[in-house]
Design a protein that fits this description.
This protein has 300 residues and is mainly β. The protein is built from two helices and 19 strands. A hairpin with a 2-residue loop joins β11 and β12. The longest helix has 7 residues. The chain starts with a helix and ends with a strand.
Length: 300
C-alpha cells in the first residue's frame, strides 16, 4: 500500500536538496575507479614486514576474520574477528534493539568499490555469497546459486604522523624522523540502512588497531499527536528520545556497539590465563514512564 501510494503521488514526500552552501563542490567527491580488482593468492596469506596472517574475508553472519597472526616469527593471535554489531534505539514504548549478526554482517553486502571504498592499487579478497538482492530491498537465499564478490581489501597507507621525530638544536636545525607506514585490512558490511566500515591496521612497531566506523543513513520514525495522551505535545514528548528532523519525523537517539573476538597467544598458555570477576548491578529507580521496574542482572 505504501509503495502504491508513493507511485501514485498520494504520499507527500520531502524534497532532497543537493546544495552545499559555499562549499566548492555540489556532490561528495569521489575518485575515479580503476578498472578491475587485483586478487591475492588463493590461500589468502599475507606477508608484510614482520607480520604474517591469513584473511578469512567473509563469514555468513559475523564478517571478516584474521587468523594465525604473528609478528617477528612469534604468534600473537589465533584469531581476530568482528563478531557482532549491535544498536539500541531509545523510545517510550517503541524502544528496540538490533543484533546485526542475526541479520547478516556480510552476505547482503556488495563488492567494495575501487577508488571509493579502497584506494587505487589495493588488493581484494574474493568470497562467496548466495543472497540475491531484490528490487524491493529483500533478499532470496539459495546456496546452489552462490556467486563471487569482493567484501574485503588490503592496502598500504602512509599515515599523517611519524613513529618518532626530533629536531636537533643546531644551526641550521636538523630534523630527523621515521614515517609511519601501516597495512590496512578493510571490510565493509551493509545491514539495511547502515554501513559498517571495519579496519584492522598493522604497524611496523608491532601495534594492531581494530576499529569500526559507521556510514549510511539514520533510521527515522514518524510521530503524530495520536502517539501521546489526549492534549499532549507530541513533539515535546518525542524530543525526550529523538532529534526532531522536521514536523512528524524524528531520528531516535541510539548507540552502536561493535563486538570483536581477540584470541591472544602471547608468551604461552600460562601467560594467557584470564581471570573472571563476577559483579552485580543494583536496581535502577523506575522511570515515571516505565510500565514495570527494570530487572536486576548479574554480569561477568
Amino acid at each position: 500500500e505504501l509503495r502504491a501510494a508513493r507511485e501514485s503521488g498520494a504520499m507527500p514526500l520531502c524534497r532532497v536538496r543537493n546544495e552545499t552552501g559555499n562549499l566548492p563542490w555540489e556532490v561528495p567527491r569521489r575518485e575515479d575507479a580503476p578498472s578491475g580488482r587485483r586478487r591475492v593468492e588463493a590461500k589468502r596469506g599475507v606477508r608484510w614486514g614482520g607480520w604474517r596472517f591469513t584473511v578469512s574475508p567473509q563469514r555468513p553472519s559475523s564478517g571478516p576474520a584474521l587468523l594465525d597472526v604473528s609478528f617477528g616469527g612469534e604468534r600473537v593471535l589465533y584469531e581476530l574477528s568482528l563478531q557482532d554489531a549491535m544498536a539500541a534505539y531509545s523510545g517510550d514504548d517503541e524502544a528496540f534493539f538490533y543484533s546485526d549478526a542475526a541479520w547478516s554482517l556480510s552476505m547482503l553486502s556488495a563488492s567494495l568499490e575501487p577508488g571509493v571504498d579502497c584506494p587505487s592499487g589495493a588488493t581484494y579478497f574474493e568470497a562467496a555469497t548466495w543472497y540475491q538482492l531484490q528490487e524491493t530491498g529483500s533478499a532470496v537465499a539459495d546456496a546452489t546459486r552462490a556467486v563471487p564478490f569482493y567484501p574485503t581489501c588490503i592496502f598500504e597507507w602512509q599515515e599523517d604522523h611519524t613513529i618518532w621525530r626530533h629536531m636537533q638544536n643546531t644551526e641550521p636545525p636538523r630534523v630527523r624522523g621515521l614515517g609511519r607506514r601501516t597495512l590496512v585490512v578493510r571490510s565493509i558490511a551493509t545491514v539495511a540502512n547502515y554501513d559498517y566500515i571495519t579496519d584492522v591496521k598493522f604497524r611496523e612497531d608491532g601495534e594492531i588497531e581494530a576499529s569500526v566506523r559507521f556510514a549510511g543513513y539514520i533510521e527515522a520514525r514518524h510521530y503524530t499527536d495520536h502517539d501521546t495522551e489526549a492534549g499532549g505535545d507530541a513533539a515535546a514528548h518525542e524530543s525526550l528520545y529523538s532529534s526532531l528532523l522536521r514536523p512528524g519525523l524524528a531520528g531516535p537517539v541510539h548507540c552502536h556497539i561493535a563486538a570483536f573476538k581477540a584470541d591472544f597467544d602471547i608468551g604461552g598458555v600460562r601467560a594467557n590465563t584470564l581471570r573472571v570477576t563476577s559483579v552485580g548491578a543494583s536496581d535502577a529507580p523506575p522511570s515515571p514512564r516505565e510500565p514495570f521496574p527494570r530487572p536486576r542482572h548479574p554480569y561477568k
